[in-house]
Design goal:
This protein is of the alpha/beta class. Strand 19, helix 23 and strand 20 form a beta-alpha-beta unit.
C-alpha cells in the first residue's frame, strides 16, 4: 500500500530489524537533540577528575631484593639434614608468606613507631623524629598545641609538655608514646592519631607487596608511602628483620638437634662404659684375654646385629618421647614436640611423616593468611573451621604414623633379636667361657661404634649452630625514591571524558525514550500504522522547501488508494495547535495550482480563522449554509488563485455541535460536490470538540495533522480510535515540523536540495 509514496523520507538505510544500528542511531539523534547534556556531563567529570588528580598526594615506592635458600646452604652443606620438599609444599611461597606475617610486621611497627599517624598538612615531616609507641599503648587521639616555648600534648587519659628538641613522653601508665619535635611549626594546633597495633599492621600490609620472580629464588619486597624516606626505611627494616628472624630460627633448629644428639650420646657412652666394665671383669675372673679364630665370623655377625638393634632401640626411645609430648595436654609440650619432630634424624628417612609435616605447615600458613589482615575471617567462617579440622586431622595422622613407626621398630628389634639368638645358639656349642667373652666383646664394639657415630653427628650439629646466617640473603637494599609512582593522570582524564560521554549519551537517550511526543515519520508509520503523507517544514515564501513539501503532500494524497476517488476531505488534528489550518490552506492552494476546482471550507465553528488569512468577512459561511435549506451563494468567496474558492466558518445560532449534525451536513456536501472537484474542510481538533467526528463520518477521507515534538502519541491514538469508531476513512497523517525537529532526528529533507533552482514564480509565490 505504501509503494505509491514519492519523495518518501529516507530511513538512512536502517532496516526495522537492525536493532544495533537503531540503538546507535538513537544515541546520535539524542546527542544532536541535547548537545548540552552530552557535553556537560563529560565536562563536569573531567573537571572533577582533574581536581582530584592535581590534589592527589604523590606516592613513592621503595623496593628491596632478597634471595632465599643460598646463604646458609653454602655454609652448612653436609652439616644439616635436608628434608626433601614434597609436591604439596612450595618452600619459596612459604617464605614469602612468613615475610608478610603479622608477627614480623608487628615488630617493624613497634620499631618505627608507625602507630602514630601525624597530620603533615601544616606540620613539616622533617620536624618530627625519635617516634616510638609501646606495643601495649592503647589507641588514642592526641591534641597538640605548639607554643613559643614547647609543645603540649593531651590524650584521653594523660597530657605532657616538652620543649622543642626534647623528647616528649606521654602515657607512662597505660603505655608509652614518645616523639620529639625539633622546632616550632607554623601551625598553632594539630590533631594526631595513635592507631591500634592491628590497624597499623593492616595499613602496612595494604602498602606491602611481596612477589617472587619467575623460576628463581629471588623475591622483590616493595613498600609504598607518601613520604620517600618512610618507604625506604620501612622496606629495609622489613627485609633486615626477616633476615635476622630467619637466621635465629635456623640456629634454634640446629640447637634443638644438637641437644637431642647430646642426650643420645650420653646414653651411648653409659652403655659403652658398662660393656667395657663387664668385659674387663669377665676377663679378670676367667683369665681369658682373646677369642678363638673360629669365633671371629660369629662375632662379626653378632656385632653387626647388635649395632643395628641399638640403633633401632635408640630410634624407638626417641619416638616414644616425642609421642608422649604430642599426646600431652599442655600446649607448650605439644608445640615443642612438633618442632622437635623436624630435628629427629629418623624423620627425614620416613617419607610419610615428612609429607604429613609439610602438609601441616601448609594448612597452618593458609589458616594464618585467612584469619589475618583487615579482611581476616572470623572463627565461625566455614573455611577457617575446615582448615582447623584439617590441621587436627593431620596432627592425628602424625600421631598414628609415629605409633605405626614404633610398632615397626618393635618388629625390627624383634627380628634382629631373633637373629642374635640364632647366632648365640650357634656359639653355645663352643666352650661357655669363649662364648661369653665373644658376647661381651661384641657389646663393647657395638657401643663404641654407636658413640662414634653420635659424636660425628653432634659435631656437625654444633658447627651448623655456630653459623649465624639463615636462608635469606639481601641482594639489594632499597634506595631513596627520587620520583613518585606514576598516577596515570592523563589516562584518568581520558577515561573521565569517555565515561562522561557515555553517561551523557545514555542520559540523553533516556530523556528521549521518556519523551512521548512524535518526532519522525517512522514513528507514524511503524508505531501508529498510519501512512505518512509528507513532512511539512516551516513555510517561508523566500524558500522553496515549504511550498514543495505541500506539493509532495498533494501528490501523495491524490495517489493514495483511500483518497484517489475522494471528493470531500477533512483536515484535522488530535489537539489544538498542531498546524492543521495552515496545512489545509496550503494544501488547497497546491491542489488549485494543479488546475482542480477546489473549495476550502472553514469547518471550525469555535475558532475559525481562515477568513483572516484570505482577508474576507466571516459571515455568511459554513454555519449559515448548514442552517439553510438552500446553498447560500454569498458564502462561497473567490480568492487570488483562479481555481480556489473559500467558505468561511460563519456564525450560527447555538452551539457548533448542534449546528453540525449528521442530518444537515451530507445535504450541504452533496450540493458542494456539484460545483467543485474537491472540497477540503478544515475541522476542529478531534479531542477538543464533538463535531469533528461528525465531519469525519460524512466525508470521503480524513487527513490527520501531527506536530513534531509536541503531539503526544496517546492523543493521536485516541483521536484515531474516535475517527475509526464512526466509520470514517483515515487517508494518512502529515508531520508538521515548523521547528525542524524531524531533521534533528536524522530525517533527510530533499525538497530544498533537489528543487533549489526554483524561482518564486515557479512555486506560485
Amino acid at each position: 500500500m505504501r509503494d505509491y509514496a514519492v519523495n518518501r523520507p529516507s530511513n538512512n538505510g536502517h532496516a526495522g530489524g537492525a536493532t544495533d544500528g537503531l540503538v546507535w542511531r538513537d544515541i546520535l539523534v539524542a546527542a544532536r537533540r541535547r548537545p548540552w547534556l552530552v557535553l556537560a556531563v563529560p565536562a563536569v567529570l573531567l573537571a572533577a577528575t582533574a581536581f582530584m588528580v592535581f590534589r592527589e598526594t604523590s606516592i613513592y615506592r621503595a623496593t628491596a631484593v632478597l634471595r632465599l635458600g643460598d646463604a646458609r646452604r653454602a655454609l652448612t652443606s653436609g652439616l644439616e639434614a635436608q628434608a626433601e620438599p614434597t609436591r604439596l609444599m612450595d618452600p619459596l611461597l612459604s617464605e614469602t608468606q612468613i615475610l608478610k606475617s603479622r608477627a614480623l610486621l608487628g615488630a617493624v611497627v613497634d620499631s618505627l613507631g608507625m602507630r602514630l599517624t601525624p597530620d603533615f598538612t601544616q606540620f613539616p615531616a622533617a620536624l618530627l623524629d625519635f617516634v616510638a609507641v609501646a606495643p601495649e599503648a592503647p589507641a588514642d587521639t592526641l591534641s597538640l598545641r605548639f607554643s613559643a616555648t614547647g609543645v603540649t600534648v593531651r590524650g584521653s587519659a594523660d597530657s605532657a609538655t616538652a620543649a622543642y628538641g626534647d623528647t616528649l613522653v606521654l602515657g607512662a601508665v597505660d603505655g608509652t608514646v614518645r616523639f620529639r619535635v625539633k622546632a616550632r611549626p607554623k601551625a598553632a594546633e594539630a590533631t594526631w592519631i595513635v592507631q591500634s597495633r592491628d590497624e597499623a599492621i593492616d595499613r602496612m600490609l595494604k602498602h606491602l607487596r611481596v612477589a617472587s620472580r619467575t623460576q628463581t629464588n629471588v623475591v622483590d619486597v616493595t613498600y609504598t608511602s607518601h613520604r620517600p624516606a618512610d618507604a625506604q626505611q620501612v622496606v629495609n627494616l622489613i627485609v633486615r628483620t626477616f633476615q635476622v628472624l630467619d637466621a635465629r630460627s635456623a640456629q634454634d633448629q640446629s640447637r634443638r638437634r644438637r641437644l637431642f644428639l647430646d642426650e643420645q650420646l650420653r646414653r651411648a657412652d653409659a652403655i659403652l662404659a658398662q660393656a667395657q666394665l663387664a668385659l674387663s671383669a669377665f676377663r679378670s675372673r676367667q683369665e681369658v684375654y682373646s677369642s678363638r679364630d673360629k669365633l671371629s665370623r660369629q662375632q662379626s655377625d653378632i656385632a653387626g646385629l647388635s649395632s643395628r638393634r641399638w640403633e633401632l632401640e635408640a630410634q624407638r626411645d626417641a619416638y616414644r618421647a616425642l609421642l608422649a609430648k604430642l599426646q600431652s595436654s599442655l600446649p607448650g609440650e605439644h608445640d615443642q614436640a612438633l618442632r622437635a619432630l623436624v630435628s629427629n634424624p629418623g624423620v627425614a628417612t620416613n617419607p610419610l611423616l615428612t609429607q604429613l609435616q609439610a602438609q601441616l605447615l601448609k594448612y597452618q600458613i593458609s589458616l594464618d593468611s585467612l584469619t589475618s589482615g583487615a579482611w581476616g575471617s572470623a572463627a565461625t567462617n566455614p573455611d577457617v573451621q575446615r582448615l582447623r579440622g584439617l590441621i587436627a586431622s593431620t596432627e592425628d595422622q602424625i600421631t598414628r604414623a609415629m605409633r605405626s613407626q614404633l610398632a615397626s621398630l618393635d618388629v625390627q628389634i624383634g627380628a634382629v633379636q631373633t637373629q642374635v639368638s640364632r647366632s648365640a645358639t650357634a656359639i653355645r656349642v663352643l666352650p661357655a667361657v669363649e662364648a661369653q667373652e665373644v658376647r661381651l666383646v661384641q657389646e663393647v664394639e657395638t657401643s663404641r661404634r654407636l658413640g662414634d657415630q653420635l659424636r660425628e653427628e653432634r659435631q656437625r650439629a654444633h658447627m651448623a649452630e655456630a653459623v649465624e646466617v639463615g636462608q635469606v640473603e639481601i641482594v639489594d637494599v632499597a634506595s631513596l625514591p627520587y620520583q613518585p609512582v606514576s598516577a596515570y593522570g592523563m589516562l584518568k582524564l581520558v577515561l573521565a571524558v569517555l565515561l562522561g560521554l557515555g553517561v551523557g549519551g545514555g542520559a540523553a537517550l533516556a530523556l528521549e525514550k521518556l519523551d512521548p511526543s512524535i518526532r519522525r515519520p517512522e514513528e507514524i508509520e511503524d508505531g501508529l500504522q498510519l501512512h505518512s503523507l509528507a513532512v511539512i517544514p516551516k513555510v517561508d515564501p523566500a524558500q522553496v522547501e515549504g511550498t514543495e513539501a505541500y506539493r509532495v503532500l498533494r501528490t501523495n494524497l491524490l495517489l493514495a488508494p483511500e483518497a484517489s476517488r475522494a471528493r470531500t476531505v477533512v483536515v484535522t488534528s488530535a489537539v489544538p495547535g498542531e498546524g492543521k489550518t495552515t496545512t489545509a490552506a496550503n494544501l488547497a492552494c497546491s491542489l488549485a495550482w494543479e488546475g482542480r476546482r477546489v473549495l476550502l471550507v472553514d469547518g471550525d465553528l469555535w475558532r475559525g480563522r481562515l477568513h483572516r488569512r484570505f482577508r474576507g468577512r466571516r459571515m455568511p459561511g459554513f454555519a449559515e449554509c448548514l442552517l439553510s435549506d438552500e446553498l447560500i451563494p454569498a458564502a462561497i468567496r473567490t480568492t487570488d488563485i483562479a481555481m480556489l474558492s473559500f467558505m468561511p466558518c460563519g456564525k450560527g445560532v447555538g452551539t457548533p455541535s448542534d449546528i453540525v449534525t449528521s442530518a444537515r451536513l451530507p445535504r450541504l456536501l452533496a450540493r458542494l460536490r456539484e460545483q467543485f472537484e474537491l472540497v477540503l474542510i478544515d475541522s476542529p481538533p478531534v479531542l477538543a470538540t464533538a463535531e469533528a467526528v461528525v465531519l469525519a463520518s460524512s466525508v470521503d477521507g480524513v487527513v490527520l495533522v501531527v506536530r513534531a515534538g509536541q503531539t503526544d502519541r496517546s492523543s493521536v491514538e485516541q483521536a484515531m480510535r474516535q475517527i475509526k469508531g464512526v466509520g470514517a476513512r483515515l487517508v494518512g497523517a502529515v508531520l508538521n515540523d515548523p521547528a525542524d525537529i524531524a531533521r534533528q532526528y536524522g530525517y533527510k529533507n530533499y525538497y530544498g536540495s533537489y528543487y533549489s533552482t526554483y524561482s518564486r514564480e515557479d512555486v506560485g509565490a
